[in-house]
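PROTOCOL LOG
Step 1. Enter all chains and additional molecules of the complex.
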Amino acid sequence: MKKILVVFAFILAGCVLFKASSFAQLTGDTNVLPLTVFPAVQDKLVTPGESTRLQLQFKNNNQMFVSGQIKVADYIISDKRGTPILIEDQQNKPKYGAASWITPSYDEITISPNNYVTVDLFVTVPNEVASCGKYAIVYFQPSLTRLRGVNARTESASAINIKFGALVNFIVQDKLCRENMQILNLKTPGFLEFGPINTSFDLVNMGDVHIVPKGSVVLTDMFGKTVVSKSIEEQRIFPETAKEYKASLGPTWMIGRYKLQLDTNFGSKDFKRSALAYIWVFPVRSVAAIALALIIIILLLKNMYKAVAKKEELLEGELEEEKKEIEKLKEELRRKNGRK
Amino acid sequence: MKDFKKRSLSLLSLVVILFYTAVFFLLPISHPINNVYAATTFSQAKVVLSNSRFSYKAVLSGTHTAPLTTATIATSGQADNDTGNIFPKDNICFNTVLSVIGCSENKTFAVNNIFAVSGSNQFSFTPATATNLAASDYVVSTQSATMTVTFTPTSAVASGGYLRVTIPSLTSNYTDGIPDGGGFDANKLTNSNINANITPTGFTKSATALSYSAGTHVILMTLSAALAAGTEYSFVIGSTSDSTLRFINPAPTGTAHVRGVADTYSFTFNSEDSSNVIIDKNILKLVPIDGVLVSATVEMTISYTIGAIAATQSVCGLTTSVASTATTVPFGSLASSNTFYNLAQSHTVTTNATRGYSLTVQYNGALSKDGAGVTTIADTTCDSASCNTTTPGPWLTATNNGFGYTMAGDDGVWVTPTLYFRPFPTSPIQIMTNSAPAASKVLNTCYRLSVSGTQQTGYYFNKLTYTITPMF
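Step 2. Run joint prediction.
Step 3. Record the structure below.
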């Protein structure tokens, strides 16, 4: 009987401990959900028919377990800033989507506190690929019920869903890639009073693979001397989209006609595209103010000169009068002395 | 008589011995004989290369049609048969005919990346080639170095004496500026400029000559002051500023070089008197070896934290009425109609992604009874119907019922004016972004709800989805 009681006590203690450890998973800080993913962006060269593997790591920076799903979606870029928009509706599968190529090693993962999980991404490239650039996003979506735990309330609320993603970009080799780019909307002011000259332009990727254009904007004066040269920011441009670039060139004080030349190169064969614009810079108001000030100064000086000259003339007249009077007095004195 | 003879013989022997002893000791002093030395070795002598890396010399595999930014090299039969000794940022030269000095297009190309595909070795470079390259055209990347010779003479060398260095070279094409497998190429060093490109320390020279012959380059320095025995001297061969005025390091010897295995070269170094008789002599060893690329990759990461904000906190220009959690915005029991219920959450982002990050939000529909999507709490249109999903508007009157959000903090798409709200959209809309790496950017999103007195009772909920990604 004693033995049975002892065994029962052990079983009971084990159950209690097990239960305690189960709850321990849910007693972390539910007020924060800190996560890290790396690498956040991967570019991978592949060939048609190739099978390869990539890896992603998701880190849980919290003191509680986090469970969730690993999902793959296509993405598109529709703005000029490069904001990825997830497309999960397979009915509207985008032209450059690569989600169907990727199979994650896990559909669901649980990340222990302050630890990370590595997810293998098995990539199968079809033999026939329609475009050179293919793009997908792999994301971790924490499970809401697990996070809320046993204390989840049923009350009016908005539930928060998080998709924490990394970009996976493929460039298909051994295929004739369509690489083309245009410079559009080169905007410069036709006339400016002062520098610097602010310019903006769009680089439009007309190809079927993303490009990272390089190049410079060069400002030269009317004598052909380079005033300033600035490299353009290197950034990816998604196929069939544009990115806007901005530059501010030259000092504040500039005079004359300036040439703004944009030279870019892109793609595997270093294709070149250029554009130019001319800008007049003349500080009209400053020059007018200086001219006006000069005229005023000249007039003032002229008036002052005139006044001085007139005064001198008067003084000379008075002096002549004085001289005449002295001569007269001398004459009178001589006459008086003669009489004596 | 016998004694006398004996004594005479002993005396004669003594005189002869004394005579020869005197001759032995006195002759070198009274009659110094030039040109007769027993050559010794230097007390110490060594040569050090400022860069001991092998030059690179391979050939192209197959025709390379311009324009091209990728080269594939042959994998056998050459000094270099792989890309193991070229690294990103190295300058490479395509040399169509080895006897022609100079590079194809008269320019060098910068190595971008090294990668191996399907058993053939490839690397990318910039800019693109403008002319076609044929199979077996050379791909070279020269490594040159200054050579520092340090030595301590065992025997003094008088002024007018010489120092002679013999450097191994090939028997042909040893001054063409192209690396040689088996010897040092003189590049642009000539007899007329060698004197200016040797820098002595501790001694002076009046002239330096450079002569080439099949198998050796010979440098001969004429001393303008004596070298003392036991004193350390040194000299540097090659320009410290112009790499073309240095000897070019050899490419690996033979046609089956194993990476990591060095080749050994022997330099002869002599001190000589004014009649070119060797005083001290050493064989110096030089050991070029493959370079080792040391690299580290800093991974591109994004860290995102969504956090709760407690009740009665002042955020976004309002005071929160209920505490949120990281995963819920629990409005709880809405006991009062035409009253604002305010909740908030924080979003913290850190990334080293070059193009920054984007945080978007969307919802699955208006707050609806039991989530059925039939009876709903309408989305806000703000005061005077001034807002929509893209344009925020002021919302200060609680009788304008609805559900919406505002934001305040770092990187928000709009953070002023305060108390401008807008409703959530069903398609993702950006709320937080930065086009550059960002550290600990914090944005608060503040949710506001007001229901009318006729709102049907029940449990209303919906789902908000935040998506965080790097920018493309």
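Step 4. Note key features.
Residues 26-36 of chain B have pLDDT under 50 and may be disordered.
The radius of gyration of chain B is 43 Å.
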